[in-house]
Amino acid sequence: MDASRIAVAGASGLIGTALVRSLTADGHEVVRLVRRRPRADDEVEWDPGRQYVDAAGLTGCDAVVNLAGAGIGDRRWTDAYKRTIRDSRVLGTAMLAEAVAALDEPPRVFLNGSAMGIYGDTGERAVDESTPPGDGFLPSVCVEWEEAAAPAQEAGVRTVFARTGLVVAAKGGAWGRLFPLFRAGLGGRMGDGRQYWSYIALHDHVAALRFLLDSESLSGPFNLTAPEPLTNREITAAMGRVLRRPTLFAVPEPVLRAALGEMAQEVLGSQRVLPTRLLESGFTFAFPGIEDAVRAARA
Questions:
Q1: Which of 233, 211, 218 is nearest to 290 (CA)?
Q2: Which of 147, 159, 234, 299 could tie 230 with a disulfide, CB 3.0–4.6 Å?
Q3: What is the pLDDT of residue 108?
Q4: Full residue range of the structural domain in which residue 223 is found
Q5: What Å distances lie between residue 37 and 33, 46, 180, CA to CA?
């Protein structure tokens, strides 16, 4: 993509920060959507709760990227926080999609966040983008999340859904909480460790987003996960090898359920998600293996 003007919602999150850094390093003009009065020329105010965005700030954008959403693992899943998880994604997406569709000159691409949680617990069964949504809270949220982008699609804007896996990063996200434990020698499997975790290196995630932005024709859902998902037990062993620490500790399932409540199912559940469409489109992973992904995060 030639130097472009790109709007990013969720620019302060783990993935958003890395994406903005990558885009600006390549000479793109990035407009960050912020939930306050702008303090710089590269900021545009928006408020998903009030269904407000300063649409004038989106004028001239070649792409709009929406990565905003309340953290899945930030708090225990009370009914109130589950509403926050849902609304922060669905309302924000709907509002941005409507704003994009209403522009006199819409961007050529609307890249919206989503998650592999759309498939639910798949056990040992491998799934890809052709698999229908599963059952439960997160699958229902993801379905609404993607459906909320309909105004942009109906306006003819190429719309892409990045169904994110577990991002391997030393700071931020779920993996950011694992690194300190493993470095302290307190890491270990969760439950019986047989559940599949579909991971992706942060570097590859950003590269995949850039790949999807640069395309002229790719649209619809793409799984952003490494080609070979591994079990929690296998990932635990790999973390121990790379960090040279013992992995003797294990967190029993009852303890996880007591500590995390309903969210424990996301830790204990199995998701064997394959990036079929990404690979078929010609994307190449720099860190496809878990040990390489952990080393890249540690660097």
A1: 233
A2: 234
A3: 96
A4: 5-298
A5: 10, 9, 36
pTM of the model: 0.95
b (16+ CB within 10 A) / e for 50-68:
eeebeeebbeebbbbbbbb
pLDDT band at 263 (very low <50, low <70, confident <90, very high): low
Q: Specify the CATH number for the domain of residue 139.
A: 3.40.50.720
| Domains in the chain, number | 1
Tell me what pLDDT residue 259 has: 59
Which structure tokens are listed for 294?
Answer: 């952990």
Question: Which two structure tokens, joined as six digits, stand for 123?
Answer: 């056990």
* Confidence band, pLDDT 50/70/90 cuts, at residue 260: low
Q: What share of the chain is helix, strand, coil (3-state, %, to 5)?
A: 45, 20, 40
Measured between alpha carbons, how far is 30 from 25 in angstroms, rounded to an integer?
10
C-beta separation of 274 from 218 below 8 A = no
Predicted local distance difference test score (pLDDT) of residue 284: 98
Burial letters 201-225, b for 16+ CB under 10 A, else e: bbbbbbbbbbbbbebeebbebbbbb
Q: CA 52 to CA 95: how far, in whole Å?
A: 7
| Closest of 72, 68, 92, 94 to residue 82, by C-alpha | 72
Distance CA 98, CA 153 (A): 10
Rounded Cα distance between 120 and 65, Å, is: 25
